[in-house]
Write a structure and sequence with these properties.
single chain; 8 helices; alpha/beta; 201 residues; globular; Aconitase, domain 4
Length: 201
């Protein structure tokens, strides 16, 4: 998993509440267990028309937001089913931070395990960030995980809270497997002792 330290990029405003994981990545894209290639399915039912052409009204299809790295979204983002494909699709599209007032619990946990930073802010701060994101290509935000700060294009700053353990894992690029491998020396030492004491196993 890549380390998350400071992210600078265009923020796209998604002014919708209760965006569930089926909207983030529809069920027809769940046949794969690969983490790549899912970006094309991100918000597919909103991004594309029935004939497969792009919906020009959807925010991520607008020229200013096609390369957005940050999503500013309404309340309860990522509710619904537990599909891990949702953060995979965001990552594959290029979005590595989602800012909202609240998240679905399972989606929130899955983000940390897959290198996506979900940031919870107050409703007042969300409105400020929506204002920043509405500026199109000029809507560049800077997210400093170490300092737990979001800086807007005019120098405005929003602080956010995050669990210290999850923060450490993102800063060091450690998913669940990575956390285990940090203790590899102890694991190997234990295995050697176990073999010596129980050679018949």
């Amino acid at each position: 998993m890549d380390k998350f330290t400071v992210l600078e990029g265009v923020a796209a405003p998604l002014k919708m509440i209760n965006v569930d994981t089926d909207m983030i990545i529809p069920k027809q894209y769940l046949k794969t267990i690969k983490r790549t290639g899912l970006g094309k399915g991100l918000f597919a039912e909103k991004r594309y028309r029935d004939d497969g052409s792009e919906n020009p009204d959807f925010v991520l299809n607008k020229p200013a937001y096609r390369k957005a790295k940050i999503l500013v979204a309404g309340d309860n983002f990522g509710c619904g089913s537990s599909r891990e494909h949702a953060p995979w699709a965001l990552m594959d599209f290029g979005i590595t931070c989602v800012i909202s007032t609240s998240f679905g619990d399972i989606f929130y946990n899955n983000c940390f395990k897959n290198g996506v930073l979900p940031v919870k802010v107050s409703p007042e701060d969300l409105e400020k960030l929506f204002d920043d994101a509405d500026r199109g290509a000029n809507a560049t935000l800077s997210i400093d995980l170490e300092r737990q700060e979001i800086r807007g294009p005019d120098g405005g700053m929003v602080k956010f809270d995050i669990d210290p353990h999850r923060k450490k894992c993102l800063l060091e690029g450690l998913d669940d497997i990575g956390l285990t491998m940090v203790k590899n020396d102890k694991i190997e030492s234990f295995e050697e002792k176990a073999k010596a004491s129980r050679p018949w196993v």
